[in-house]
Structure formats: C-alpha cells, structure tokens
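Progress report, Aim 2. The chain analyzed during this reporting quarter is listed below.
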Amino acid sequence: MLDRYTQDLAGLRARGRLRMLAPRVGMDFASNDYLALAESPEFAAAARAALARGVPVGAGGSRLLRGNHPEHEALEAEAARFFGAESALYFSAGFTANEALLSTAPQREDFILYDELAHASAHEGMRLARAPNAPFAHNDVGAAEDAIRAWRARGGRGRLWIVVESLYSMDGDKAPLDELYALSARSDAFLVIDEAHATGVYGRGGRGLAARFEGRDNVITLHTCGKAMGVAGGLLCLPRVLRDFMINRCRPFIFATAPSPLVAACMRAALEIIEAADDRRAELMARIDFAGAELRRLCGIDSSGSQIQPIIVGADVRATTLASRLRAHGYDIRAIRPPTVPEGSARLRIALTLNTRKDDLAQMIAHLGEELARLEP
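Predicted structure tokens for the chain:
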C-alpha cells in the first residue's frame, strides 16, 4: 500500500532533492524576518495587551458563522487605510490568500498571464481557476504584451489578469511595475501584485513597492504578514466589490475557520510598528549595500540589490554541499533546488536580516568565498 510513496521518496533522495525538516541552528541567514520583529519585545507586548483585553486565541468558526471577530474587521479597515486600498480581506496565510484570489476571481472567459517565476501559491490558484493561463518570460513586459495580442487574435473577449511579484523570492530582483501597470491600463487588465517580500521593507512607512498603485480599480495587492511584518497571515487589498465577491464565492474563505483574533490584533500593532520602523529599514538597506560590495570583492558575485541574495551553483548536490559546509561554520543557510527553482539553477538563498550583526555578515561572506573556491565543479 505504501510502496509507491517509499519509491517516490527514494527517487527524490537519489536526485539530491529529498526535503527534510531541520531545526534552527546558527546565525539567521535563512528567514524572512527581515526587520527582526518576529521575536521583538514590541510584538510580545502587543500580544500581552490583546490577551489582557480579552481577545481570544481561536475564532471558533468561519467568518460567515460566529468566527467573524471585531479584531478581523478592525485589522481590515486599518490595513485598507494604511496601504491606500478601498478594502482589505484577511486570510490565515499569504499562500492561502493568493491561491484563494486566483482560484475565485478570474472567470471562464478570462485569461491569466503570469510571470514565469511567480510563486507556487499563484500556480496553485491558477490550477484551480476556471480561466486558462499562460506564462511570460520573467520581467519581460514585451512578451506579456505579445501574449495578450495573440489571445485577442484567437478571439479572447474576457478580462485579462496579469500576475507578478514586486520582489521575487528566489532571485531577489524587482518587477518593472510602472511598465506592467501601463500594460494593464491599456489592455483593460487586472494587475495582481504579490508584495510578500517588499511589504515592510520598501516604500513610505514600509507600504511596499506597489504603494503608488494601491486603490486603483484594476490593481489587487497581496501583503504577506509573516515576513518583514513579523506576524502571520495575508492581506488582500482590492476594490470593495471584489472583496464582497470573495466573501460570497471564495471556498477557502467561506469554509475555513477564521484566522486567530489574537494574531489579527498583533497585526494591527504591526502596522503601527512597521510604519515607525524607518531606522530598521535604513539599517537593512545599509546591510544590503555592504553585502553587495563584499560579494563582489570576495566571491565575484553581483548583488541582487535586495535583501534576498541567490548564490546560483547549478547542480543540486553542489548547493546542498555548500549549504552544509556553511552550516558547519555556524550559519543557517539553506539550499534551494528544483522544482522550486528552474532546472540547473540550484542555489543558496541568503536572506539578509537584522537578526545578525554586520560583523557576522562580513564573516559569512568571507567563508562563502572560501567554500565556493573549494566546491567541486
């Protein structure tokens, strides 16, 4: 009965792709806690204050039953004001929010175009969607426009959806949002922007890279709450009519137990903390610049220009070997392999956070340079 699963796992192991849970060890160069807020005293105080005023840990039911707590509604109202959107809808995870949106809002006659490096959550949503979909070359707005023309030429008459990330989670590069918005405007398309790795880090008060487009009728943004914002969940910022549509038609919203009211209360505090975190953002930007200079000097590697730095080594075993050697030096760095990244592009994903000191960063890059030189071709 279980042989097929045993064989599948054995195949993954033979190809160097078996995933296993590993404990936190060493200095943090792996998490998405970019501003070091997840374990901060500020968030601990926010949680204690919420518990003291009687906010429950569990919701007890879906939002459409008794699970709709005032903390959910307060968070959504405050998030809409904070990000400049007409409305917001809170989910228990960013993955769930992205999957829920794309599996629900596009209709049968519509067409979804997505950047080829879009997150797995977008792919899962599109797999469940009524509308057909197609990729376009990474950050290639011309390729996206060509695909739109071809779809129209084939008789496509529905609504277009263009799905991108503002900052890509495995390459650390930014999307050409101005060009993408212009394309969406002239194509009468919705533009869905996943701000997961930009929220909290970029923009005025940490509002993200897409802040200037928030509130427009054809723009939907996803703000993940468990990365730089340090809590958990996902906020969809979208026109009110789409929020109402999701409440009525979105199965992951309708049939799921509501997110924890306590976590929602902590997220309300997170919006205030993030807005006031300019000093943290400035320090993180300084670390990004420093890391970029050291990577060029010691490793011959160009900087991504963001807090996400890929070290692409090609073969799976080279990535796992390099990660293991760096962990032996005391750094928590993980190997990323296909299918998470394209074939032949296995890598280390180094995350720059404020959980480590600048001296730790300098020593890590020095060790990285040494281990890259030792790595077999």
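The chain has two domains: 23-39+277-372, 55-275. Residues 23-39+277-372 form a domain with the Aspartate Aminotransferase, domain 1 fold (CATH 3.90.1150.10). These observations will guide the mutagenesis work planned for the next reporting period.
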